[in-house]
Amino acid sequence: MILFYILVLMAPMPNHPLFEALLGGLTVVKWLGIICCAYALLRLLRCPRRPAFLKSWPARFFLLLFGIATLSFFTLAKTEGLPFNPMLTYMSYVLLFFTTISVVNTYERLHKTLLAAIAGEALASLYVIREFQASGATNMRPGYVAGDSNYFATCTVLVIPIALYFAKMEVSRLQRWFCVASLVLMSLAFTLASSRGGLVGLCVAIVYMIVRSGQSRRAAIVTAVLLVPMLMFAPSSPLYRMLHPTYGDVVGAQIRRDFWRAGLDMIRNHAVTGIGLGNFTAQSFTISQGIEGKQGIACNTFLEIAAELGIPGFLAYCGVLGGALLSAGKLRAEGKRRDDTFLQYAGHAMQAGLLGFSAAAIFVSAEYQKPFWIIAALTATVPTLLRQQSRRQSRRQKQLVMPRARIATINV
Predict the structure, then answer these.
(1) pLDDT tens-digit profile of 152-179?
(2) What is this structure's pTM?
(3) In whole angstroms, what is the distance from residue 398 CA to residue 10 CA?
């Protein structure tokens, strides 16, 4: 199980020099995933009861999305120029869902996995801060080990609410200080990444926490207040880029609008089938004066999926997101019913993170980001977790009833 936690830990660092090193033709992190999948399969064969693989809506919609992507890849895709194979990425996420649902079968393991996600983003934040320091504290936007700065910020939005809620839990002092320290690191690195879309996503997550979090409302407000000085005075800040855009920022906005226009044209012309998985870059181009003919990604997750996989693929992806929010809501409701702080906080945090990620994903093509699919897979474990907890409660009730029955028999 420790290897699975390491896999979650390394998810926010796609360019880590150790885990992305080649070993026998595959990267270290891929070998790690294979070992985790083999462990999940072995556990499945030894366990008399099967996990609820298809009881959750995120798992169902993901399989639908995978089917659409597979059909698109083998009929329409032409991905020779891409630096990665999108079909292999989708297959790895299928294995991720299978592994996660198989091994995260207790609330304790869910808790540890979420802590591993916090640790991963905190470690990625350290790399971002170190890169900023190594650059001489200039306006350069760091993020090599953690990937593109926009992707880093978008994925950090997923985890900041989890760290915030867990810092409030009545648990060991070590865990609370770990979450507080992680929050500080992530906030600083998020500011240095200077992602305007990430800032929009973070605002959405914080607003949701303030509106829906009840007793955690004050903590969300305090977090927002503490972020303001960094956003105002940092040498590289997303807020500063919004208020005082440079020439590069203006050109970047023009390119984004051109790609959005191209994506909308693709959807109008290929609404049902899309243009094919991974084909957006090859068929897109800019039309603004001075940057004509530039090709690239859609800079919008939902638009790119709709353009490549058609409206059915877009609806399937939205189904994954909506199903994940619904499952996290069930976890929160179960926690409220049982007066379990961890379940309430975990459900709230994952909902806030997913909403923030979705808002940030409007400004970046983030459909292949591992942290998102890890959180989505964790929400798919909720039916299995609730079912097993129900069985444990039934056993406890029987154990309590049996001694009473024996005492009654003796008295008779």
Answers:
(1) 999 999 999 999 999 888 888 899 999 9
(2) 0.89
(3) 43
